[in-house]
Design brief:
The protein is mostly helical and 300 residues long. It has two domains: 6-216, Cation efflux protein transmembrane domain (Alpha-lytic protease prodomain-like); 222-298, Alpha-Beta Plaits (2-Layer Sandwich), CATH 3.30.70. It is built from nine helices and three strands; from the N terminus they run H-H-H-H-H-H-H-H-E-E-H-E.
Amino acid sequence: MAKSNLSIYSALAANVLIAATKFVAGSITNSSSMIAEGIHSLVDTVNQLLLLYGLKQSRKRPDPLRPFGYGKELYFWSFIVAIMIFGLGGGLSIYQGYIHILHPEPLKNPTWNYIVLAFSFVFEGTSLIIAIKEFNKTRGNERFWKAVVNSKDPSSFLVLFEDGAAVLGLSIVFISIFLEHRFNNPHLDGIASVLVGLLLVVVSLILARESRSLLMGEGIADRTARKIRELVTKDPLITEVKYLFSTYQSPEEILLVMIITIKDDVDIAEIDEAIEQARDRIKQSYPLIKFIIMQPELKE
């Protein structure tokens, strides 16, 4: 997992600062889109807390109940965050907008909305910039979407997508309030709320897909598997890696299981030594591989 949770803490601070002000401004001005944005910020605040909880749980040491550790706690809570964005964020925003479209209320003085939106842009934009910088540290030269798919740390791209959706949602609300005030059309406010909700639904589906994949278990890359096979078969006693299975227990822990073929006419002590040396070579080259299980078979 990421060594620094800076992006999560910055997003948490931004959402706490602006969630209450959005609700107050929305209530004063009768703006459903601003209320929808308040719901968005409130859900995001809870999401950051859940991510921090998942990170803390995932660092718990292995015990008899979880001999391979608690790393998948992070993947579980990331999936819960994605569902919350869908149900609470997207669902409530769409409902709020639908009600406002059916029963539109004239927008009162939008000054407070503009003030809150301006501050929200500053806070959310700052949080987004921090999230992008943190994500770029891990993705290197990979393309953005490929880096998201290949990432084993959902806390990094979850915050990135949340902040990106927040900034885009603020843009939608700003445009809707401006047009509603300009053309005196209260229906635009409800439409903006629905658009914000649909945006959150799309983001949640993307995040849920990636979190689900990690929760079910993703293995190491093919090129890494090939290099591991080469490291293992460096020993003259090991003729072949017959099967190789792997799964990420957490962003920093990989479980590796191999069935290897051993030459004939070797004693148990020689086999044990060959396996131990192969384990050492793998761990030296790939420190994230914490658990290695090797099952030897005699060459037919």
